[in-house]
Amino acid sequence: MSEAAPFGELRNAQGERLDYACAGGAGPGEDLLVVLCHGVTANKDRAWATTLAQELTDAGFASLRFSFAGNGESEGDFRESTISKEVSDLGAVLDAVGERPLCVVGHSMGGAVGVLRAASDERIDYLVSLAGMVDTKGFYERKFGEQTPGQDLMWDKPECPLSQTFKDDMFAIGSVLERGAEVRVPWLLLHGDADSVVLPEDSRQIVKQARCARLIEIPGADHLFSGEHEGPMAKRVAAWLQEQG
Fold first, then answer.
1. Alpha-carbon distance 80 to 77, whole Å?
2. Residue 191, φ and ψ in degrees, nearest 5
3. Which residue from 142, 130, 144, 145 is spatially nearest to 200, judged by alpha carbons?
4. How far is it, in rounded angstroms, from Cα 26 to Cα 34?
5. Alpha-carbon Rg of the chain, whole angstroms?
């Protein structure tokens, strides 16, 4: 088995294979494993995720980044990619890695996934939200409210059709704000104040609900922590994990 996939095939509750990669000597063991969760229409190889994985390796941490079902090279239908299903996908990944210290890092919609999983799953020891989505209904209305499910595409991406299933789940969840109070582990939130995709107000609101959380707003950073902000974002996450030590 290659070092890139030390846990063999990962499959979700529907039997769909989840594409993943590990770094920093990840594998069955006792050391902290950092699991990276991407956002909507993305995959495990987004620049923020690969940069963070490398920074974590340099800091001595193991990491696992994966693509949710229907995204990237994972099996499944993108039209079924919802927050609720991705919470289940994350659970399948945690099942596969076994009993060990765990940190979940979620970006954008992956941030909402992380909150919902951490609020109910005692296996998670640390949580990091990067531009984490909180107001799911509001996000849908702002970004896709003028589009028609079943006909239109998300951000004009042919591989990302807008589905009624996605809309229904975003509206059913509504917001993960109240679930923030159920997160009992150390929690770091990073948000760029120039983010126009997931508004910084999402993080400002949910951090007020949390028991043990810290919000850092990064001046000038966009939703993806692009350009000059990418490296510093990764260093902040690694440094915070070292502080938890």
1. 6
2. -150, 135
3. 130
4. 9
5. 17
Residue 160 is assigned to a structural domain of this protein = no
| Reported pTM | 0.96
Does a structural domain hold residue 54? Answer: yes
96-121 per-position pLDDT tens digit = 999 999 999 999 999 999 999 999 99
> Any alpha helices (H) in the chain, and if so which ranges?
47-58, 83-97, 109-118, 136-144, 164-173, 200-207, 230-244
Structural domain span for residue 65: 10-134+181-244
List the structure tokens of 108.
Answer: 């954008």
- Residue 238's Cβ-side half-sphere holds a number of Cα atoms within 13 Å equal to 21
Q: State the CATH number of the domain containing residue 52.
A: 3.40.50.1820
Contact indicator for 96, 90 with CB cutoff of 8 Å = no
